[in-house]
Amino acid sequence: MLHKSRIGYTKADAYIRVMASRKIIHVDMDAFFASVEQRDNPDLRGKPVAVGGSSRRGVVAAASYEARAFGVKSAMPSSRAAKLCPDLIFVKSRFEAYREASAIIRDIFARYTDLVQPLSLDEAYLDVTHDTLGIGSAVKIAKYIRADIWDETQLTASAGVSYNKFIAKLASDQNKPNGICVILPDQGADFVASLPVRRFRGVGPRTAEKMARLGIESGADLRTKDEAWLAAHFGSFGGYLHRAARGIDDRPVNANRRRKSVGGERTYSQDKREESDIRAALDEIIDKVWDRIDHNKARGRTVVLKARYADFTTLTRSKSLPRLVKDKTEFGEIGHAMMDQLLPAPMGFRLLGMTLSGLEQDGDQAGIEPAGNRATAQLSLFEE
Ligand code: TTP
Ligand code: MG
Ligand code: MG
Fold this sequence. Notes:
CATH topology of the largest domain: Dna Ligase, domain 1
Oligomer: single chain
Shape: globular
Number of domains: 4
Structural class: alpha+beta
Bound molecules: thymidine-5'-triphosphate, magnesium ion
CATH architecture of the largest domain: 2-Layer Sandwich
Distance between the termini: 55 Å
Radius of gyration: 23 Å
Largest sheet: 5 strands, mixed
CATH class of the largest domain: Alpha Beta
Number of helices: 15
Strand order of the largest sheet: 5-6-1-7-8
């Protein structure tokens, strides 16, 4: 366990001195798509708004805070959202407007540090350990950034300020909307202990249920478990959970993350049942996705097929070659061969998608995530 080194510090001391001396800010826009819509259409202000398809089969992309009071949230089927909130106003998405706002906030981030890692259109990590502008503190920098965002976009952002990415992201969510939360190194472990485990990155509803069965509801509960126990119950995820429960996260802020995959998917207004329709739909996706792959000059070894049945059960099939996928024809053949395994289908498909992953660089920019594109890379191929 902890041992005193020659100079008298324990490992925990060393962590606080070295890793916990970083200053990381996570900024995330509030109800991003919905806020852009409310900004641009005064009639929507103060009202419950959902961005996304209002059709019977649509899904909510973003919900205004007024809508959230009714329980409406992202990724919820629109039909359910409409039931929860009868006055809910559905608005079509306008990606151009979101991209424009996203470009402005990235410009703002870049004024304060070169070390910016965008995670999606509406959020980023910033490493401000080195106060290049001499502002004085990370908290002040976060305040300035939130003020700049308001001045230049008339949108609000929330910020988390802490000593690593894991805690900064939890903190930005803590006082949403339009809030800031600062977690100092000696507060990190207590902060994490106080949170329900479902707030942890990577703990989805299923994992949270499994944890509940094992008596783990909070970060504090998680902390009572040792690494071997966590590995036995959660496999390779165990190590992460063990560190997370102690507020430890050494991941650097990656200013130029390499994109891991290029893909796309489509939800159909009517389930695809006939094999000929399914094959034609897949061909259409192959065309669009390969265009995207070409555009990014991406090359990869792994092809992934995703299919969602009418009852929302979702399957993915993947095949990895020992070499790069040659061309669109090969990409398509692999996709159709994986589809062979799913046919005849027990019910219709409501969604199909294809992805090329295990990407390699081809030239010096290819494979490097173009600023701003990660969020959209896996979104619908067809903006409604
Ligand atoms: P988030 O930052 O997750 O959510 P948000 O900005 O709407 O709300 P919050 O105040 O809690 O941060 O996502 C940013 C945008 O990404 C969101 O406005 C719409 C889009 N999005 C989807 O299209 N589908 C999704 O499932 C999610 C989670 C987000
Ligand atoms: Mg957001
Ligand atoms: Mg976000």
